[in-house]
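Severity: low
Component: inverse-folding endpoint
Summary: output formatting inconsistent between runs
Steps to reproduce: submit the following structure tokens with default settings.
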């Protein structure tokens, strides 16, 4: 919980809220009514929960905050992508993105204010980690996106936990968030429509495997060998690639689910034909999918974008080696599309 603040009502799973009701002299079914008001009817205040007694609403108001995100700005792309910059109660800024696909609308959420992982290609890590988000602060990002989609009579059908921060370093809040948005009385987003991305926090990959979710897991790999990965991602020093790959195999064997490996292509760093050959050898025999990512240019970083021909050549080599591979469609290329860029721009402006 955030210091000196009542817990967010949005942070409570349905079983947690049922337990609270019973401890406070209320019927457990009231928790389901509250969930319907929050996530079905998407009200903004307890006073709007008209089928709850005044006494219960007063108890809820005394125990919980319904603090909502304040929209600082939003950018809309020609392709329909919407990027929000929100302010939290303590003034920190976070990003949330709506992306349009042929299969539905996907919401990308942030789990931390900043990030301490230190990937050398990422804008999110600029300025380091400020704090973890409470579960409800992640939940209300999806709610805010859904309210924006309500105006178009559309639904947020998918969620990707790929925004600012390392989700597995905020593990308990992540799990509560996943359970709340998956709850039938909540936002009712199916587990197979949710993807969590990690930079490779090995102990948490084992832990997540043992949760037996049907949620998709994506690993930010970005390199075919441990030397290049250490250069791109300092986390590889803490959790070397061989340990990471062991954890990935455990995840596949335990859950029976296919893993996705995210592979950002950086000109002359990890995008040569020999790198594709090495990556194919690394992943041979694994039930996995490689998502090739043409990297967004980040002014504060010094990587060169891989050419279109080299991207397709890299894919052809993986295809020929029997590796399931796609090239990620770019979203919002005409706005501050790279994760953390909008927040970084805002920080510069507010600091003078």
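Observed output (run 2 of 3):
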């Amino acid at each position: 919980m955030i210091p000196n603040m009542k817990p967010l009502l949005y942070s409570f799973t349905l079983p947690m809220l049922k337990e609270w009701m019973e401890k406070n002299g209320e019927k457990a079914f009231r928790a389901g009514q509250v969930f319907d008001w929050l996530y079905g009817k998407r009200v903004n205040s307890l006073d709007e929960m008209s089928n709850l007694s005044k006494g219960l609403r007063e108890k809820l108001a005394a125990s919980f905050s319904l603090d909502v995100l304040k929209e600082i700005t939003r950018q809309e792309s020609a392709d329909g992508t919407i990027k929000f910059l929100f302010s939290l109660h303590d003034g920190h800024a976070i990003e949330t993105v709506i992306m349009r696909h042929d299969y539905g609308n996907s919401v990308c959420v942030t789990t931390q204010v900043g990030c301490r992982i230190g990937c050398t290609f990422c804008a999110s890590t600029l300025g380091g980690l400020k704090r973890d988000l409470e579960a409800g602060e992640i939940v209300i990002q999806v709610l805010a996106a859904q309210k924006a989609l309500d105006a178009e009579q559309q639904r947020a059908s998918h969620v990707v936990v790929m925004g600012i921060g390392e989700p597995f370093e905020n593990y308990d809040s992540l799990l509560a968030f996943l359970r709340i948005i998956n709850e039938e009385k909540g936002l009712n987003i199916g587990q197979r429509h949710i993807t969590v991305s990690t930079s490779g926090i090995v102990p948490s990959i084992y832990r997540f495997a043992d949760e037996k979710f049907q949620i998709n897991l994506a690993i930010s790999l970005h390199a075919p060998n441990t030397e290049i990965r250490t250069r791109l991602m300092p986390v590889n020093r803490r959790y070397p690639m061989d340990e990471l790959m062991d954890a990935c195999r455990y995840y596949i064997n335990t859950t029976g689910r296919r893993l996705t490996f995210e592979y950002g292509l950086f000109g002359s760093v990890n995008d040569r034909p020999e790198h594709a050959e090495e990556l194919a050898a690394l992943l041979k025999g694994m039930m996995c999918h490689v998502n090739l990512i043409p990297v967004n240019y980040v002014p504060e970083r010094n990587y060169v974008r891989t050419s279109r021909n080299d991207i397709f050549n890299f894919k052809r080599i993986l295809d020929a080696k029997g590796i399931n591979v796609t090239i990620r469609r770019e979203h919002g290329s005409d706005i501050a599309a790279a994760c953390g860029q909008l927040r970084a721009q805002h920080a510069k402006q507010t600091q003078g």
